[in-house]
Predict the 3D structure of the following.
Amino acid sequence: MLNFELYNPTNLVFGKGQIEKLSTLVPKGAKILLAYGGGSIFKNGIHEQVLNNLKGFEIVEFSGIEANPHFETLMKAVAIVKEQKIDFILAVGGGSVIDGTKFISAAAHFDGNPMDILQKRLLIKDLSKVIPFGTILTLPATGSEMNSGAVVTIEATQEKLAFGGSALFPKFSICDPTVIASLPKRQLQNGVVDAYTHVLEQYLTYPHEGYLQDRFAEGILQTLIQVGPEVVRNPTDYALASNFMWSCTMALNGLIQKGVPQDWATHMIGHELTALYGIDHARTLAVVGPNLYRVMFETKKGKLAQYGKRIFNLTGTDDEIAKEAINKTVEFFHTMGMDTKLSDYTKDFEKTADFIVNRFEQREWKALGEKQNVTLEKVKEIVEMSY
């Protein structure tokens, strides 16, 4: 195994009715910015529950954080934090609201141009320079409720960029699986595929000696295959909902990535498709991932074969199993309601590969993946194969 440090200070508060603990989790006397997206927290009653459990606290509300949070929108919240002297943020929503809150937290006391946090991929480590925040998760998918990473879109430049740092862990996250009952089918589908691909990014690399890490990852994949299609059909089933929500958290809370190589090229390419065409994040991963595995087949063949044997019980030669494992992954994505070609989402796809390659070249992202062998030529091949 590779050397690693494991640090995760988030207090995860999981289960039915846990929102009742909210007033004990928020610092006494805090002036709170309540951050959320659209109107769903009013429809499902969560907004009312939050206010009822925060009686006595001074609360300023900020709504309108997009499904892919925009830098421009978040800067409006930063201005409110400064003007109102906010000292705690409560994010109520899915990964986008939580990611947006991480940016607000980092930008409020940032010395310089806050856009640098995104474009220069700065690590935010100084706890004294961020606004502390907690979360109430309403949409399982990204694991942002228990990690220190985030992704924000700069609308003006059509860029979707990641950032993070050890100062950006939530102080607490309340995760009540019953909240998924009111979610649209599409968001549940997205959540399953997003979490599944998060695991693949940390697992589908090459064979190594992180035996326990592999088993952790495989356990999450098997659980998502088991509960994913069913939770979309029956989100009120608590066993399904709780295992789905916990799988999404475990997929990206830092545990399964420790001591092992990681890829993340699928995400970096997928982010560009979201920035260009507004395609749901999970759906870009379903488009890009299988084609990345095909283009990088020789590099990933050993791990693809392990994946095929352990997850799909495939037999045959390693080459046969590895190839069929990719097909089985696509089948699962289709079962989860995903289209897996870019042309399913946009007719204006012909110059996409060149655009993304140029973007990566400008950022000097010339060597991606676990072996830094996803070159710009490979990126172009992957994207073109995804048409």
